[in-house]
Design brief:
mainly beta, 0% helix, 104 residues, 8 strands, globular
Length: 104
Amino acid sequence: MKAKGARRRPSYSAYALIDCTVSSGTFADERSIVVNLPNGQSVLAFVDKSQVLVDKDPKAGEEVNGRLRVYVVSKMKDKAIIDLPEAGIAVGPRVEVPVLSLRY
């Protein structure tokens, strides 16, 4: 029996991965990422390289495909609200994405 006011655990993992394009950032431990959303919007952010999974690190001026670790705030039938590890340049840290774009 749960204590009154206890938080329920979500039925999904709180963290997920989303596809992105990755390039080197200003600093050695930073990466520039772009997440392209189905509605045509692109989200650009600078994140710590530990939050990005890539097959190989991008060289200066090079872009590679990768996956960004995001926090899933809420999940509905066909969409989810996620928090990026750092705020996006034009949209802030919270973004709505299709559930199918997330990998657990």
